[in-house]
Input
Amino acid sequence: MKLWDMSDMYKLINEYPRQFERGFRAAEAISIPPDIKEVVIIAVSYNAAVVAIVQSLFGDEFKVPVILYSDMRSLQQLGPQTLCIAISLCGHRAEVVSAVQIAHASGAKIVVITTGGELEIFARERKLPLVLLDKQLSEWKFRMGHGIVLATIVQLLINARVLSATARQKILTAVTAIEKLYLPKLGQKLVDLLAGSTVLIYSSPYHTGLARLCKSLINILWQTPCFTGSFTDLQYLEIHGFGHKGYAKHLVLLLQDKNDDALTQTTIVNLATKLADNKIKYYILGLPGETRIEKTLAGIMLFYWTIYGALQTDSK
Output
């Protein structure tokens, strides 16, 4: 288990709500031509999960399709009315560097988000729009800079006229609300529930990105096995595999959002009953906050506190 400076992490989590304004400011000067017909975002790992969160929060408001790239061949078909946003904070992710090279050769408009590395060099040599984030920020050390990345992506979409400027205000309003929440206690409760288990996080489609991000935090920072899935997969497929004794060490975490439709709410109740019948440990996590944006952003912060509590417990 890697040792962290817990006082630095504590301060960083408390300052999480201020990440969003910093992300907006980092990208607001980037100029993007107004003739964009589609947006392709090149990202992997944590950053891909953040892209999925942006898609779930604002997908209904996008004026053109906004997709996460899936394979190199699709990038070869791009043209000058495609905006490609390439994200690699270290600047050396081979998948991202290779993909942006193909996208650029195809004639797409490129914007790069990074702290340096090959991606910065690629952008500067070709005079591409570049959002250069400070590589010395503690957020990158602790892998807890997702608010900065999310806000940067949203601001670029606003600049491209793909998303209304009201999206920025919606996020800042939600941030003001989550600053009033007290989440460390719930974070510690999750530590106590999840410790020693293989964690299976299930969610509705609206929170797929949040679930994937939380999985990554648990995998990488807590070094605990964690997997994600959808309520649909659990209900119709995976529930049948929980009858074996080997699943005694698993804990199923069901992400609940009171804004989900009635069918989803009923599905959660039915799944909880089936899990209990199979003697599988589970917990229904009601995401804190009121609106879907609040619940998503607060959910990220909640899992930061969970990781903090877990690492603090493990260090004793």
